[in-house]
Design brief:
Strand order of the largest sheet: 19-20-22-23-24-25-26-27
CATH superfamily of the largest domain: EAL domain
Number of helices: 29
Structural class: alpha/beta
Largest sheet: 8 strands, mixed, barrel
Number of strands: 27
Helix content: 40-55%
Shape: elongated
Radius of gyration: 38 Å
């Protein structure tokens, strides 16, 4: 190994020299290529040049160094976001701000999740931060004062850091060999990883000392986890993590079950005194929790005393092994945070996505993903507290795990949303539908629940697990829109419809700004005399790609923030039409506009209507408001208040699509309505279905009893018009009577006075 110390005095005269390191095409991965990649972060360009010159041509562990330089925290963050493959990060504490280096170290570990690169903190201000605390809090490999580097040697610092990196990198590589085990049971990942490392530790000590493998690895007190205290950790009884050779029977048991009192006492003494113990028959190597995250003792039966060289070798080995245990514990903890739900201790959404990717590999046999969403979960759980909420979730999770055993995976995706992925024979809607067929028992009481479900095959054309999950969620939304307990299987049509809805939503803004909308007016007639008595203003949209049907864009507009501007536009157009009708001498035609439930959410709706009418000098009694039963029931009290205000000011109110949306008639007498509009569903059945005629008769009789006029929608045949007239429905609209017309044609129709066709 060739090393060259960094001597600032030697390179000071070259401080202004331009030094550029150009990465080679074959040197982009620190752990798998022919170089060690170093990220140097310092805003002192002179020091950066000195560092670069000192490391030029340096070889460590048979590889040269490739130095990438950044001159600020922000630049380093951008670099790491794009390129994560660094063995060592040298970072100055003080740059843009006094703790920039510490921020970068924290971001590398916590935000980017990079646990392998070793971080060496540099400072030109001795005592800026307590070394012990900073080393522990920020997972640093070293903390150096710049002025000491000439004496200490930057190459030595890097050698130690690269050694630590290489060991951690090798450990992570070894963990990849356990991938199938980890994927099958992420809960056991931590225990198996520590056990694997413990077995390797025993084997390595035996190899170093050239003795048979016979010994134990015992875990004592742990570092406190979040919410724990040191005291609670110190009370933990020593536990045999790994046992080999003549001690094999003690594996996984308390230290008291070791069966060799002398060895047991040696291990207890090492744990209690935080010391390594050398005996004539064995070695107890103590690994402190400050580095290993738990107190460990590695005991190996040697059968002989060790010579000084062997003891020195064991000391070096123990230092590296402590870091190895700490790194594995940290990685295992990150695994749990990344792949386990903290409340239910089951796989989470990330674990589900990983399993989907695994099952979608070419050598797999496909499968299904089922989403399971508990209906009305918030309503059931919020009033009873977090304890009941968690108990309910746990009960649902147990049902799902029982219904979908391994090899299927059950994961909690969100609050009350679970995902199940596995073979198509066992993971499907039919099985999911039976999960809540019997009540859940929670806190000695029975609770009935239902769930909406969605199913999607894994062998679709979606690019990855994220896209597949989005398609499943879209399918679930459709299922939920159809009511509690509904199940839905994915269809590619769903995504084509969603893509079209997205395009429509994106073009709505342009349509408003560029005048893409226009209004047509559907005439309404008095069936007794054939006179035109009103018109319904209907919004139309002709986009650059052609006409967009109202039943496509209006539901999308109603769910968007655009509905208020669109609603105002229609009211303005209706008022303009009333003005032109007045100017043409037609003074008795009421023009009505449809108002959505979202428009009632906005304060001042009636004030806005009055303002528009006043500004255009239109009598308010010539403008009618139409709204559906569903819109009424969405916020009954507020809607009734607005309707009363509109009627009190002289306006007209019509309840549209009557008979299709209201669950109960008990609210009808409270509605300030001038008209009930009989839905076209009932009108279309008048020719051939007695059931439809019965419902129409009932609505007409109800309107008469309440003193509310009736308007029939969708009248398309002479027989329908005659039936309605005979049974007391005086007013009607529909294609038989007149299709939606531009305003000039409506005015001509009113002037002509031709009456019914």
């Amino acid at each position: 190994m060739t090393q060259r110390s960094l001597n600032l005095a030697e390179v000071a005269e070259d401080a202004n020299a331009e030094v550029t390191f150009v990465p080679e095409d074959d040197a982009h991965h620190a752990g798998s290529r022919s170089v060690w990649r170093i990220l140097a972060v310092d805003d002192d360009r002179s020091f950066q040049r000195a560092t670069a010159l000192a490391l030029k041509n340096t070889i460590i562990f048979g590889r040269r160094l490739e130095v990438v330089q950044a001159y600020s925290l922000a630049e380093a963050a951008r670099q790491l976001a794009q390129d994560r493959d660094f063995a060592v990060i040298l970072v100055d504490v003080v740059m843009e701000c006094e703790d920039a280096g510490l921020r970068l170290a924290k971001g590398v570990r916590e935000t980017l999740g990079l646990m392998e690169p070793r971080i060496v903190l540099l400072t030109g201000q001795p005592g800026f931060a307590p070394v012990a605390r900073v080393m522990e809090d920020y997972d640093l490999t070293d903390y150096c004062i710049k002025s000491d580097l000439a004496r200490r040697s930057l190459n030595q610092v890097l050698t130690g850091a690269i050694r630590a990196y290489r060991q951690l990198h090798d450990l992570v590589s070894a963990r990849k060999g356990l991938q199938l085990i980890i994927e099958s049971s992420s809960r056991l990942a931590a225990a198996r990883s520590i056990g694997e490392l413990a077995r390797k530790a025993l084997a390595e000590v035996a190899r170093l000392l050239d003795v048979p493998v016979s010994g134990v690895v015992c875990e004592g007190a742990r570092m406190p986890a979040d919410g724990d205290t040191i005291a609670s950790c110190d009370t933990r009884q020593p536990f045999v993590t790994c046992a080999e050779g003549c001690f094999a029977d003690a594996h996984g048991r308390a230290l008291s079950a070791l069966g060799d009192h002398t060895v047991e006492q040696t291990i207890r003494q090492a744990l209690a005194g935080h010391i390594s113990i050398d005996t004539a028959q064995g070695q107890a190597i103590f690994l402190p929790r400050e580095e290993a995250r738990s107190d460990y003792v590695v005991y190996l039966r040697t059968g002989r005393p060790l010579d000084p060289a062997e003891k020195e070798l064991l000391g070096v080995f123990a230092t590296n092994l402590s870091r190895g245990f700490g790194n594995v514990a940290l990685i295992d903890r990150l695994d749990r945070l990344a792949f386990e739900d903290p409340v239910l201790r089951m796989p989470n959404a990330t674990a589900l996505l990983r399993e989907i990717d695994r099952l979608r590999r070419p050598d797999s046999h496909g499968g299904r993903l089922v989403l399971f969403d508990v209906d009305q979960f918030s309503r059931q759980a919020d009033g009873l507290g977090d304890g009941f909420r968690n108990a309910l979730l746990a009960a649902v999770a147990r049902r799902l795990e029982s219904a979908f055993p391994q090899p299927a995976m059950v994961a909690r995706i969100a609050d009350d949303l679970f995902g199940i992925v596995g073979p198509a024979m066992s993971v499907n809607l039919d099985r999911a539908s039976g999960v809540l067929a019997t009540p859940l028992e929670i806190e000695a009481a029975h609770h009935w629940c239902s769930a909406c479900t969605a199913e999607i095959p894994l062998d679709t054309a979606h690019a990855d697990a994220h896209a597949l999950k989005r398609a499943a969620l879209q399918t679930l939304r459709i299922a939920k829109s159809r009511g509690s307990g509904h199940g839905m299987r994915w269809s590619p049509e769903f995504e084509r419809d969603e893509a079209r809805r997205f395009r429509i939503h994106a073009r709505l803004t342009d349509a408003i700004a560029q005048g893409g909308f226009h209004v047509k007016f559907q005439p309404q007639f008095d069936l007794d005399c054939g006179r035109l008595i009103g018109a319904e203003a209907l919004l139309r949209w002709h986009s650059p790609d052609g006409p967009v049907p109202p039943d496509e864009f209006i539901p999308i507009a109603e769910k968007s923030a655009h509905i208020h501007a669109i609603g105002r536009y229609v009211i303005e157009q209706a008022c303009d039409a009333i003005g032109e009708l007045e100017a043409a001498g037609i003074a008795d035609v009421v023009v009505s506009v449809n108002v959505s439930a979202r428009q009632f959410e906005q304060d001042g709706l009636t004030d806005a209507i009055r303002e528009i009418c006043h500004g255009r000098r239109v009598p308010l009694d010539r403008l009618g408001i139409e709204l559906t039963e569903t819109a009424v029931m969405s916020s009954f009290d507020r809607v009734v208040e607005v309707l009363h205000a509109h009627r009190d000011a002289g306006g007209k109110v019509a309840i549209d699509d009557f008979g299709t949306g209201m669950a109960s008639l008990e609210y009808l007498h409270m509605l300030p309505a001038d008209f009930l509009k009989i839905d076209r569903t009932f009108v279309s059945s008048l020719d051939h279905e007695e059931r439809g005629r019965s419902i129409a008769r009932m609505i007409i009789e109800l309107g008469h009893n309440l003193g509310i006029a009736l308007i029939a929608e969708g009248v398309e045949t002479r027989e329908q018009a005659d039936w309605l007239r005979r049974h007391g429905c005086r007013f009607a609209q529909g294609w038989l009577l007149g299709r939606p017309l531009p305003l000039p044609q409506l005015i001509a129709l009113a002037r002509d006075g031709r009456g019914l066709p």
